[in-house]
Predict the structure.
Amino acid sequence: MDTQILAQVMKDCGLRFLGFRRETGIPPYVAGMVTSCSTDEGRRDRTAAFDDPARVPKANADWFELATEFGLFSADRQFLLSISVPHPDAADDTDVEGVWGLVELTDGWDIMGAGCAAGITGSPYGCPAFVMSALDGSVFVQGTVWQDSIGTAVLPNPRRVQSLQDIARLSLGKPYQSAAENEDTVAWLAS
């Protein structure tokens, strides 16, 4: 993956790419399970209807409000964004894994619009499909498309969620998991 091109594309949607981060102890695939969690497990959602002409600005505002309220951003507005990269043992480029990219939110950001149009936070424009984590893994944020809306789901304290722990345990050592994913899973379960 050409990191210079990735950095430019991210810049165009208001993110500064600061490099890939492996061995974070936070498995991206587990963070991508937020929408599978229930409100009883702590999940909170905000949505904007497809037929709302202001859905992208509303969804952007909702994402930022939830991310701020639940602590996605570090003091300098950094967080982790899952980026699909070719799996290390892949025979072709269709086999991918999520790897954390360290990013910083800059002024003029547009996660739901420009980010999706660029394929960074979803695809196409206005159709989010992203996975994010606080640097310490204390909150996961997922963007998604529902049947009649788009939105953001946030899950604080994901390490306390039994269903995520179960998924992580079941995924350990599977042939579709890379060594790095297994190491992050072991570390996450032990924390």
